[in-house]
Monosaccharide-transporting ATPase
Amino acid sequence: MKFNAYIKNWLLYGFLFAMACIFLAPIVWTIMTSFKPTNNMFSLPPKLWVPGMGWQNYRSAFTVHQMHLAILNSFATTALQIFFTLLVSALAAYPLAIMQFPGRNAIFFAILATMMIPQFGMVVPTFKVVALLKLTNNYGGLVFPAAAAPFGVFLLRQYYMRLPKDFFDAGIVDGANQWTLWYKVALPLAKPALAALAIYTFTNAWKALLWPLLVLQKRELVTLPIRLFFVMVGYNPDYASLMAGSTIAIIVPVVFFLFFQSQFIEGLSGGVKG
């Protein structure tokens, strides 16, 4: 029996290792290719290491294609989206979880129903609203539609419902109103869920292409995915700079996740259990 269990474990770990290699291979190839000279970039058979590897592709990406500006724009828009998504979701989820009023569940299910609508189905009506409010070609056109995040409301509502009711009753006895209860009781206790939502929002905002491509048309406002898209679809694609920019686009969310992975797991598990 022990021998069979030993074999099963080896087979399981071998399968997981093989799957990890399959998923990591394109990422490793992209990172290594970003350091290769252009003439050796697509050599056959593929080689991870070739003579002349260096930082020349990154210098080209920053000087020729001004990717440093696109990176700064991505950080700015992502930070704004995280802030407003957390604020709106935390405020909207509180009455749906803590307060009692008619139609509470109906409103919650209506919010959940919007999660079933495909992204492409919302592009045209959302763009019309953004254009009507004159939010095109500025960060508001990116930030405010993203702040209406039904998943954020769902996650925080479920987490709020797990909080002990005694905390809120004690606050009411002490004379606290609902704003005070939200700010001083619910919000501090929901930090794991807020961290999970922040990571989720970060990854979505950082990699977004379609919506920023529609809203941001000024060259000085474009984000990193848009800049990479322009580099790739140009008349003479600069694959060296594309690999360098793609490497930066990969590394940033990975580092962000590594710093907050424990809060991400705790927040998601708490929200689902709620």
About this structure: The chain has a mean pLDDT of 86.
